[in-house]
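Write out this protein's structure.
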Amino acid sequence: MRAALVRQWFLCVLAAALCGGLLAGCYGPQSLVATFLRVVHPSWTTIIVLFLMSFSLDTSRLREALLHPHAVLWGTIVNLGLTPLVAWPIAGWQARPDFSLGLMIAAIAPCTLATASVFTRRAGGNDAISLLVTLVTNVACVIVSPLWLTVILQSNTRVELTGVVSQLIYCVLLPTVIGQLAQWPRSGATISIRYRKVMNTAAQWLVLLLVLMAATRGGVMLRHQPAGPSAIALAGLIASCIVVHLASLWLGWMGAATMRASKETAIAVALSASQKTLPIGILMATHPLVVRDDAPFITFPLLAFHAGQLLIDAMLADRWAAQQRSTT
């Protein structure tokens, strides 16, 4: 039992962070919760995570991913193009209109800023590809996501996301570039190799901190909502989120397999193609032109999708890592 817990420590702490954060946000002391959310700044935490991931990333892998961009391109197409198409009919089956709209908003959001690369590295995949898919989808979402939202709402609604660009430059592009530049001096390369495992572990713990923060913020949102939806509607929503995520995972994996990519590349494409970021989804869901009186629980699908993808991908990452260890 103890050995199993040691192997599955990330999944156990992840489940505890999700449940504990939701409970704290819903029922914890408001002053303490507000202080925690104010102190743990998601932008700075993401900057540190991506710097650590980039600094400890093998430069040759990043160069190879840039020279052969087909895997990155496929991951981007699945994330921003095919996933919304998969979610569209499933969203129409939801018991509530806010669940339907929220599920579509979750589907049109870009890849997560940190967890895709962390999970890819944990699984033994090519983290250079997941890092590039994260960067490309988050930049492209400024144009693609508003177009999808216009189609979904069947109106001339234009959601202004240009403010996200500067955040992406500071939180994604700059730490990635600086992390790679820090390897250029011989001393930097030596530090990168010597402390790669330490930086990898630190990045995983910071991701867990981000998950705890997001879950707590979700609990705060739930606290201020009126009477909740029915258990049947919630069960249908959770099942729908899982189906959409698994379908995107499969599309990413099969596309990489069709290209005859290595297993490391397939893992990276599958994870980065299927993961969705919560902050940009919340930004779109709470936009004044999107919020409606008949959609009080529009953020529920985003929280359900986020929690589901983290738990599923953590289990997959550990399984893939175990398979890689058994073959070496």
